[in-house]
Design goal:
Chain lengths: 158, 778
């Protein structure tokens, strides 16, 4: 066992666990951040997607030893400012209004993949949006409304 | 009532069920309530079963058979292990009946010593420990002593029949004698996995009264409640079932959760502490129910102008090792097997048999997607043989008002088959596109390496095709199902002046928690946020039946509307001249709580005979048309489904966005069924029991889906709604297969239509003989 320190949603975290413990388990069980979900445990479904230094990763495939000194963002920290106001941010709002969340189990991971896409300057065109969420499986929506929601908040290219 | 078409996003939507403009929100949900539990799901605050923390809880796992069929002689825990630190449960620990209560009592919770193992993933023993590492170490230390028995894998060879039906009308022999063309065809479909993204999950908490509280992912709390009472010998109060946020079901959480809840309960009772049983994906795919594989054989007689004169259809379904819901799945499959077409002489036969594979069960569509794939492909092949457009052959045969179905049911109202057909044809420019793809195919024909084939090695990398299919789907339970269920839904004005809807119907993504308050608020004339939706907890709500069969809005939603009307009438009678919305708070203060429990009453004039299988098989039907366009890679035969126009008549659209969500999601599941979703078996075991090997469509695989909603209301339901969930699942797969034919010239008779099957059909002897497989001229 050794102690690992990193930032989660802007706050420092320290866990004393085996280095190969999955980031997913650290988030859900050690830190109580259950917004990140497990769907397959082998990097196929993307339900456990989080941002690691701004890049979207499957937290079921990331051992905690690789997170030392890095910045993790989960659905709980998607929009801290909006959360303090007790409201949703524009991406969450777009998902809600477009009907992009149904059963909701893929939603946290889908939001993180969408956030990474938008933060990287992704525009409202459909093809790159579909590419950006291709690692996140949804069985409810048929994806159309998710694509629409992301496009609605993306900034058009000049 | 007339049929209307809604164009989503425009102002043609009737506002009767819409709450007042004051609470409209910006964006596409304008005028309709936003998903009630949406914010919790979008912030990660929503608690699914695996997110719940129970201090001191242990983890439970299942020890399963690894043989398809065997006699269980002994369960031998390794004597070198100290078993006192963990809990091991076997059939001997079951206080009541060792049975997962459903239609037949054939499935045990755990195979008893001396009993028969019937499939390779069958539960034999259960193990609980304080941590998962201990479980991993001990799992392999329990030896099952067995004596192998000969398994059966072919449903047609099995002599154990779970159910069989025969329905007939007219004189089939005379019909075939009068036919100008008789065409035969055999169609096959395999297993399909529901693949909800949240795996099966259940936590059992022992109560002080010797009872059990279940927290879990489920569609039907009262199914589990019934199963617990019987196997654990509990009273109705001792057994309590609470649905937690549920990450998708699609039928896969209709029946299996009873088994898992009982397993968790056995361990919890023995360990005297909460036990969590959360499946990993591998176990979920390997052990839980799938869509039934089926073989469907058609013999069809038509006149040369394309009118159906005789249909003789045989359906064989593979039930797997235990009965589960198989008789009802088969029944729906058989009743829909002829497709939405008038035919004077019909014989429909079906049987479902037992094989030594994991049990098959409920999956969106419930038997109809299997038989309607066959029916539509058969009709499309007939159209080709007669050189009639697939659109025209449907126009000539489709059900119209006052037509009679094979069970003798006269379709007296709410028939929108023509409407959905014409809408789909118009929206897709079907005939125009078809003319173009035919020209393209003629240019390619014979230019490639496959003699007479339409694939070529020239400049074009892909070929485009367009395909049409039509479907019907009986609304609600089959036959007398709803009468037997006698569901109860409640609307309550509490003593402290709150309004509550109480039903056992679960939210699993469809929007139950949103539309039930919406419908009740509209009846009562109050703001939707003033209507609460009580938890799906058997200690709190009565049994309003299972959340299955697209019945939630139609049947239970109808009950909540009737209950709301009665509540409104009672309160207004006590407060003459004061409308409900102004009177109810004071009324509660003055008179205390008022609760209306509304029980289902048979729909007027709907009569079905379970013995003869004649009469009104369903109170009404939903109608759907789909036009798919595909691109087929000319080198690899890989199929990309580009667009699907999905037109669905749901009776009454309660919430357009949620309704479209059902159509789009169901359509994509059907596209997956048509193209990539396949279970491979070896000696009764699923080979691809992981998400890395069982593939479902990603955002890149998914077509553009345009949903057009049609309303042909059903007068027996107070709102006219007929259900939506299953309808789109019936129709898109045959549309995709027809589009593949349009692009390549070959008919694929077995789903999924993989590149291997398409290439094999193209390379068949006689220049693509698959195109004429089974054809016989009369």
């Amino acid at each position: 066992m050794s102690a690992y320190r990193f930032l989660v949603n802007g706050a420092p975290a320290e866990v004393d666990v085996p280095g190969m413990r999955r980031l997913l388990d650290v988030l859900r069980e050690d830190l109580g951040l259950t917004g990140t979900k497990e769907g397959c445990g082998e990097g196929e479904c993307g339900a456990c997607s989080v941002l690691l230094d701004g890049q979207v990763v499957d937290s079921c495939l990331v051992p905690i030893c690789q997170v030392e000194g890095r910045i993790v963002r989960t659905v709980e920290g998607l929009s801290l400012a909006a959360r303090e106001r007790g409201s949703l941010d524009t991406l969450q709002e777009a998902f809600l209004e477009h009907g992009a969340a149904q059963c909701g189990i893929c939603t946290p991971g889908m939001l993180m993949a969408a956030r990474a896409y938008l933060d990287a300057g992704g525009g409202p065109d459909e093809d790159p949006i579909r590419e950006a969420i291709a690692g996140n499986l949804c069985r409810c929506t048929g994806y159309s409304k998710i694509v629409d929601a992301i496009a609605a908040v993306a900034t058009p290219a000049d | 009532m007339p049929t209307r078409t809604l164009t989503p996003g425009t102002e043609t939507v009737e506002r009767a069920l819409v709450i007042d403009p004051g609470q409209r929100v910006p964006g596409r949900a304008s005028g309709f309530p936003l998903r009630r539990e949406g914010p919790a799901k979008l912030t990660g605050a929503a608690k699914y079963t695996d997110d719940l923390v129970f201090p001191g809880a242990w983890y439970g796992i299942t020890i399963r058979s690894t043989e398809a069929r065997a006699k269980l002689l002994a369960i031998e825990p390794d004597p070198d292990v100290d078993w006192s630190k963990v809990v091991l449960a076997t059939a001997a620990d079951i206080p009541g009946d060792n049975v997962v209560s459903l239609i037949k009592d054939d499935q045990p919770l755990l195979v008893p010593v001396g009993g028969e193992i019937r499939h390779h993933a069958e539960p034999v023993a259960l193990l609980a420990a304080p941590d998962r590492e201990t479980l991993r170490q001990l799992k392999g230390r329990i030896k099952l002593v067995t004596e192998a028995l000969p398994p059966v894998f072919d449903p047609e060879e099995s002599d154990h029949v779970f159910a069989q039906y025969e329905v007939s009308q007219g004189d089939v022999a005379a019909g075939f004698a009068a036919a100008d063309l008789v065409l035969e065809g055999e169609y096959r479909v395999g297993h399909q996995e529901q693949l909800y993204i949240e795996n099966q999950a259940m936590i059992a908490v022992p109560g002080e009264d010797g009872g059990i509280v279940i927290h879990g992912s489920m569609q039907c709390p009262y199914y589990i409640h019934k199963a617990l009472k019987r196997a654990l010998r509990l009273s109705s109060v001792q057994a309590r079932v609470i649905q937690e946020e549920t990450g998708g079901g699609f039928g896969g959480k209709e029946e299996y959760p009873s088994m898992l809840a009982l397993h968790a309960s056995l361990l919890a009772l023995k360990a005297r502490r909460p036990v969590r049983m959360i499946y990993e994906r591998h176990e979920d795919i390997a052990a839980t129910t799938k869509r039934h594989p089926a073989i469907v054989r058609h013999r069809t007689g038509v006149t040369k102008d394309g009118r159906l004169v005789a249909q003789d259809i045989e359906v064989v379904m593979d039930g797997g090792a235990y009965c589960t819901l198989t008789p009802v799945v088969l029944s729906r499959g058989v009743l829909h097997a002829g497709g939405p077409y008038r035919c004077p002489n019909v014989r429909l036969r079906g049987r479902a048999t037992r094989t030594n594979t994991p049990p098959n069960g409920a999956f969106r569509g419930f038997g109809a997607p299997q038989t309607e794939f066959a029916a539509e492909t058969q009709l499309n092949r007939i159209a080709e043989r007669l050189a009639i457009s697939p659109a025209d052959i449907r126009r000539r045969n489709v059900y119209r008002l006052n037509d009679t179905t094979p069970t003798g049911q006269v379709l007296r109202e709410s028939v929108a088959a023509e409407e959905v057909l014409e809408q789909a044809l118009g929206a897709s420019l079907y005939e125009r596109v078809r003319e173009r793809t035919a020209r393209d195919a003629a240019q390619r024909r014979g230019s490639g390496t496959i003699p007479a084939g339409t694939l070529r090695t020239g400049d074009d990398r892909t070929a485009t095709g367009i395909g049409l299919a039509l479907a019907w789907h009986g609304a609600g339970f089959t036959g007398s199902g709803e009468v037997h269920l006698a569901s109860v839904a409640s609307v309550e004005l509490t003593a402290d002046g709150r309004l509550r809807v109480l039903t056992a119907n679960t939210e699993m993504g469809q929007g139950t928690k949103t539309v039930f308050p919406q419908m009740v608020a509209a009846e009562l004339g109050v703001r939707v946020d003033l209507v609460e939706y009580a938890a799906q907890d058997t200690a709190e709500v009565l049994d309003s039946g299972p959340t299955v069969a697209s019945r939630t809005v139609m049947v239970v939603g109808g009950l909540t509307i009737l209950a709301a009307r009665k509540l409104k009438a009672e309160v207004e009678a006590r407060n003459p001249g004061v409308p409900f919305q102004e009177a109810y708070r004071d009324d509660a203060q003055a008179h205390g709580a008022t609760r209306i429990d509304q029980q289902f009453e048979p729909y007027p004039g709907v009569v079905f005979d379970d013995e003869t299988y004649l009469g009104d098989a369903y109170p009404a039907y939903g109608w759907a048309a789909a036009v798919a366009t595909v691109e087929v890679d000319l080198d690899t035969a890989e199929v990309q489904v580009r667009d699907v126009i999905a037109v669905d008549d749901v009776g009454k659209v309660i919430h357009p966005i949620l309704c479209e969500g059902q159509v789009e999601g169901g359509t994509l599941q059907a596209v997956g069924y048509a193209t990539i979703e396949e279970i491979k078996l070896q000696e009764g075991r699923y080979l691809n029991d992981r998400l890395a090997t069982y593939l479902i469509p990603t955002a890149l695989d998914a077509p553009h889906i345009r949903s057009i909603l049609v309303e042909a209301p059903y007068s027996g339901a107070p709102h006219g709604a007929k259900g939506v969930g299953e309808l789109p699942m019936d129709v898109a797969a045959p549309a995709v297969v027809a589009a593949i034919h349009d692009a390549t010239g070959v008919w694929i008779h077995e789903l999924p239509a993989t590149p291997e099957k398409i290439l094999a059909a193209l390379r068949a002897p006689d220049g693509g003989g698959a195109r004429r497989k089974g054809a016989a001229a009369a």
